[in-house]
């Protein structure tokens, strides 16, 4: 095999893109093992946790290579996960040069969203719908939708400056609660609790928590516990952000 180190690096690129896009550890490890076998490695041992990946492979001439990759930030991007899965299936059937695999993965990572309005529209619909679903009025739904715009803007700005996720969650929660209190104070909204609930649904780490349970069930106990603990920390950050504002406004009495 020519340039096994470069080949393994390309395999790690695929795993990193999956993990940073919100894929569960079992999917990441399985994809990397399949790609490694497709490129001729006789054995591949993969360890993936929330913040790191380590891969050790053995070549046909009994050469052992180990590479690691530090994971600093993770999010949720089903578009990337689907694209990488499709690419990996094609590569397993018909392997391509590692340079081309790296280029295609980079194209997936940097590909612009063709429907840029999709995410802000989802924010509006989700917040407004849940505010009404839990018992709020139509005015509460509109107020929740306005607050979700602030959440979206803060999320975009936080990603641009690489703000630490827990800090970003707390800041988003506090700003959203302040905006919700303002809508009630000005008469735009009626029920502060329903407006806040509608927007909290946007911040709850549902996918990371579900992935952590799946990792635990399939035997990746360490990864699952780390992911579950991270989800709990994010939930606490949401509560802390809301509490900081509500204590200043006197709770529901605004």
UniProtKB/TrEMBL annotation:
<feature type="transmembrane region" description="Helical">
    <location>
        <begin position="142"/>
        <end position="158"/>
    </location>
</feature>
<dbReference type="GO" id="GO:0005886">
    <property type="term" value="C:plasma membrane"/>
</dbReference>
<keyword id="KW-0472">Membrane</keyword>
<feature type="transmembrane region" description="Helical">
    <location>
        <begin position="165"/>
        <end position="182"/>
    </location>
</feature>
<feature type="domain" description="Threonine/serine exporter-like N-terminal">
    <location>
        <begin position="11"/>
        <end position="246"/>
    </location>
</feature>
<feature type="transmembrane region" description="Helical">
    <location>
        <begin position="119"/>
        <end position="136"/>
    </location>
</feature>
<protein>
    <submittedName>
        <fullName>Threonine/serine exporter family protein</fullName>
    </submittedName>
</protein>
<keyword id="KW-1133">Transmembrane helix</keyword>
<keyword id="KW-0812">Transmembrane</keyword>
<dbReference type="InterPro" id="IPR010619">
    <property type="entry name" value="ThrE-like_N"/>
</dbReference>
<dbReference type="GO" id="GO:0015744">
    <property type="term" value="P:succinate transport"/>
</dbReference>
<feature type="transmembrane region" description="Helical">
    <location>
        <begin position="194"/>
        <end position="213"/>
    </location>
</feature>
<dbReference type="InterPro" id="IPR050539">
    <property type="entry name" value="ThrE_Dicarb/AminoAcid_Exp"/>
</dbReference>
<comment type="similarity">
    <text>Belongs to the ThrE exporter (TC 2.A.79) family.</text>
</comment>
<dbReference type="GO" id="GO:0022857">
    <property type="term" value="F:transmembrane transporter activity"/>
</dbReference>
<keyword id="KW-1003">Cell membrane</keyword>
<feature type="transmembrane region" description="Helical">
    <location>
        <begin position="225"/>
        <end position="247"/>
    </location>
</feature>
<dbReference type="Pfam" id="PF06738">
    <property type="entry name" value="ThrE"/>
</dbReference>
């Amino acid at each position: 095999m020519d340039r096994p180190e470069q080949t393994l690096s390309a395999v790690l690129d695929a795993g990193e893109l999956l993990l940073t896009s919100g894929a569960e550890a079992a999917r990441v490890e399985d994809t990397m093992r399949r790609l490694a076998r497709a490129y001729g490695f006789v054995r591949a041992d993969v360890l993936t946790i929330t913040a790191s990946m380590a891969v050790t492979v053995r070549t046909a001439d009994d050469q052992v290579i180990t590479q690691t990759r530090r994971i600093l930030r993770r999010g949720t991007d089903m578009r990337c996960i689907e694209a990488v899965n499709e690419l990996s299936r094609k590569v397993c059937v018909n392997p391509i040069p590692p340079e081309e695999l790296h280029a295609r993965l980079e194209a997936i990572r940097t590909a612009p969203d063709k429907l840029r309005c999709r995410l802000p529209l989802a924010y509006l619909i989700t917040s407004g719908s849940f505010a009404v679903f839990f018992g709020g009025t139509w005015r509460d739904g509109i107020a929740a939708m306005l607050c979700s715009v602030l959440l979206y803007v803060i999320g975009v700005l936080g990603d641009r400056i690489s703000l630490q996720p827990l800090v970003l969650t707390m800041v988003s929660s506090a700003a959203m609660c302040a905006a919700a209190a303002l809508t009630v104070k000005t008469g735009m909204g009626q029920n502060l609790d329903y407006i806040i609930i509608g927007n909290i649904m946007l911040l709850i780490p549902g996918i990371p928590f579900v992935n952590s349970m799946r990792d635990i069930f399939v035997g990746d106990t360490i990864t699952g516990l780390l992911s579950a603990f991270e989800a709990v920390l994010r939930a606490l950050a949401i509560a802390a952000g809301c509490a900081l504002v509500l204590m200043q406004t006197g709770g529901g009495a605004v």
